């Protein structure tokens, strides 16, 4: 009664509309390709605009830091979007993995565990989307509400025409660019979080099934052995699904080429430095300062959720052996205990999601990023204020 593929149906529809999620049928292919091409063109045009602006402001540290702040966001997004589009056909492998019969046929209690887990992830996704929408709205209101800047564009960037004469044309272009970034970036991130949460929920179901096996009953010894073997198959299928997800989605979409997830974390770390620095030179009551606070919340939420869900799947998979040990396995027959030992050894290695095989996505990584970001911000601010 519950199709695991429905957990990503919202993100699938959103990315299909923008032309980046793969389709099994080629109906209306021209419109589909046009939408994707338009998204890519506007995004790369904005990237070129900021590069030119950085060259022009290379001698002004305050203006340069503002441009670098948004440039880093845009570069990491384009890297993720380009790789997502190039390797998008791999998502079919994930959808096929979610139809594995071993993930179905559980009790209503297990289904409730799965739904509760997905509901919490949906709540996180809604909050993130609301933060993105508020950031875009607040960002577009900067040139209209901040009286200190006359006809200033929402984003720092160079445009090949007189922005004072054709002001609203420039505003429309930059609002379209930031909206495309928020739309696609949030959809790809939430899609990733949902797929990780599916694995975490399946691990929770497996833990409860292992814990409730009753090895005391001699008359049900053969049935218990079958249940235990099904749990082994379930565990193997979850680990295989996680590998499919990592190498077909997370690896190719966020780690391929130079735009790896480790670079994303490094870029976020750098964004934190420049964001704090730029906020320190902006007056407190201004609308621009309020936008920077909202932008900081979006940035922390985005990276924090990658680390949170990575930490969650790691700790949940690490508890498999502990939950099985809590059952009355010691009352089982000696003939089956050899299988127990092999299973115990297999569960000693938790499932971990890494950034480029270098950094584990965990809460420890997140605190390290924030701590280092603030330390370097203090150095940068000291250099800026130094006479």
TrEMBL record:
InterPro entries: 7tm6_olfct_rcpt. The keyword Cell membrane applies. GO terms for cellular component: plasma membrane. It comes from Asbolus verrucosus (Desert ironclad beetle). GO terms for molecular function: odorant binding; olfactory receptor activity. It comes from the Eukaryota. This is 7tm 6 domain containing protein. It is found in: Cell membrane. Coiled coil: none annotated. The chain crosses the membrane at residues 30-56, 68-87, 127-145, 166-184, 245-262, 274-297. It is a multi-pass membrane protein. GO terms for biological process: signal transduction.
